[in-house]
Design goal:
This protein is α+β, with helices and mostly antiparallel strands. 30% of the residues lie in helices and 15% in strands. It has helices at residues 21-29, 76-94, 103-111, 126-134; strands spanning 2-8, 13-18, 43-45, 97-100, 120-122.
Length: 153
């Protein structure tokens, strides 16, 4: 598998996993590569920094992520649903403020009336998200990754 940083014509950045560079080119030519935020199929490889592995005695051993291997074909109804979900997420984020790593703190402040309510999105660890839910604070993960504003071109 190979991971490419990709970007759409709207400037959204995201990752794509492919069997090879040829697989990416083939899927792109067939319109199977689309932006998870806006659904655009005008996608190109974004500049990437080279991956420099750590020395073997400094590597943290982690299990490889499990991925379902298919023949590269996404059923049309799934593609349609993913595009609709990506458009819905992009629409929701238009009126939402990026708060980065302070998501849990700001969610709590709004819940307890220490801060005015507003739509926010950011980062939280699984533990932080569970603690928010345990306190009765409604949070939900975004279905597609979101690039931090300072990472966009």
């Amino acid at each position: 598998m190979i991971v490419f940083d990709l970007s759409c014509i709207e400037g959204h950045r995201f990752e794509g996993w492919f069997g090879s560079s040829d697989d990416f080119a083939d899927q792109q030519a067939r319109g199977l590569v689309a932006c998870p935020q806006c659904g655009s199929d005008k996608v190109a490889k974004a500049p990437m920094a080279p991956a420099v592995p750590a020395k073997s005695n400094q590597r943290e051993e982690r299990p490889a992520p499990r991925r379902q291997v298919t023949n590269g074909e996404i059923p049309p109804e799934v593609r349609k649903a993913m595009k609709a979900l990506a458009r819905a997420q992009a629409k929701a984020l238009e009126n939402s403020k990026w708060v980065g790593d302070s998501f849990a703190e700001q969610s709590r402040a709004m819940h307890y009336g220490e801060k005015d309510l507003e739509a926010i999105h950011g980062k939280a660890t699984l533990k932080e998200a569970q603690e928010l839910l345990d306190e009765g604070i409604s949070v939900a993960p975004l279905p597609f990754p979101v690039a931090e504003p300072d990472e966009l071109n």
